[in-house]
Automatic annotation (TrEMBL):
It comes from the Bacteria. Keywords: Signal. This is Gamma-carboxymuconolactone decarboxylase. The keyword DNA damage does not apply. Residues 1-22 form the signal peptide. GO terms for molecular function: peroxiredoxin activity. InterPro entries: 4CMD/NDH-1_regulator, AhpD-like, CMD-like. Residues 57-136 form the Carboxymuconolactone decarboxylase-like domain. SUPFAM superfamilies: AhpD-like. The keyword Signal applies. It comes from gamma proteobacterium HTCC2207. Pfam families: CMD.
Length: 150
């Protein structure tokens, strides 16, 4: 998998198609669209449809390809996909997108301790400042004093 493809995947994940849930879009009935919408709903419960407006074509790519295909694969688990996405965002120091995907990780049952370990591991490859920024972001999204669900 090329760096360019990974970057496109990560940016697509990060931007998200919040407005894809608004009433302005035509109702799609394709299987990929339905699967994509279901996955987006699972990853981002309580999504604010007015949070970000994207061009309709990019919304379609995000829902149908990213969430309807890429996040649907069976070769690795949903949690593994989430951890891979978080690791890439950590390495690229994309703190805005980390906020989104650290919350996704939490939503799908990944323990905070795993994210902490991923950040510490990536620090040795991407740099200490990247890890420090990521820990600040994780603490903003998931404070250490919060009770976790087991």
């Amino acid at each position: 998998m090329s760096i360019k493809y990974i970057a496109i995947h990560i940016m697509s994940c990060a931007i998200l198609s919040f407005s894809a849930f608004s009433e302005e879009l035509p109702v799609e009935t394709s299987d990929r669209h339905q699967k994509g919408m279901a996955m987006a709903g699972k990853l981002f419960p309580g999504l604010d449809p007015d949070a970000l407006a994207l061009p309709k074509k990019f919304q379609k790519y995000t829902i149908e390809h990213l969430f309807g295909d890429v996040w649907q694969g069976t070769e690795i688990s949903l949690q593994e996909r989430s951890l891979a996405t978080c690791a890439a965002l950590i390495a690229m120091n994309r703190t805005s997108e980390q906020k989104i995907h650290f919350a996704v990780a939490r939503n799908i049952g990944i323990p905070r301790e795993k994210l902490e370990e991923i950040i510490a591991h990536v620090a040795h490859y991407a740099g200490w400042p990247v890890a420090m920024s990521s820990f600040h972001t994780l603490n903003a999204v998931w404070p250490t004093n919060e009770v976790t669900k087991d």
